[in-house]
Specification:
174 residues, 4-stranded antiparallel sheet, mainly beta, 14 strands, 45% strand
Length: 174
């Protein structure tokens, strides 16, 4: 209940009231994931649980195989916006809300975007250490998250991912 101070629902309401995000909630299993200003929450309509102190990027959630995938970063202090966005996943429980892979180590991030589901896989665009965007795929594990090869002389950066006949096609800057 929102009127009980200290309850998870009251904390969620405070988080959302302090700084509403433009990230649309999404359903995973029997839970609704809600991005607060610096935290991720899940509710089943009766109980509300804080999943993690992270900031979900504006691209929001993509669901594949019953798991929500998203770009997020550890919450920054104060009003600062975090800069180390990486690929995360959640099944709506705290123990399974985790960063999948640290594509660009350190304080920089890979800023995953254009997350596109295909069965249990998610294709996405992410920056690598040199700042260029590359095409990636994940199965939700660190080892199963890989940059996809494509001819370097043909394309420099993927853009506008679309799923066509079970094959990812991306526009490229030539």
């Amino acid at each position: 209940r929102l009127d009980q101070p200290g309850s998870p629902s009251a904390a969620l309401a405070a988080s959302l009231t302090d700084s509403l995000t433009s990230v649309a909630p999404t359903i995973v299993g029997n839970r609704c994931l809600i991005a607060g200003s610096q935290s991720l929450w899940a509710t089943n309509g009766v109980t509300t649980t804080k999943l993690s102190d992270i900031t979900v990027d504006f691209d929001g959630f993509t669901v594949a195989g019953g798991i929500a995938y998203f770009s997020a970063a550890p919450a920054a202090s104060g009003d600062a916006r975090p800069t180390n966005f990486e690929l995360w996943k959640s099944d709506g429980t705290p123990q399974n809300t985790v960063r999948i892979k640290d594509i660009v180590a350190g304080d920089s991030g890979s800023f995953p975007t254009e997350l596109t589901p295909d069965g249990n896989l998610v294709y996405f665009r992410a920056q690598v250490a040199d700042g260029t965007d590359k095409l990636w795929v994940t199965d939700g594990t660190d080892k199963g998250t890989k940059q996809l090869p494509y001819p370097a002389q043909a394309v420099s950066e993927p853009n506008g991912l679309k799923l066509l006949s079970n094959a990812q096609i991306g526009r490229a800057h030539v």
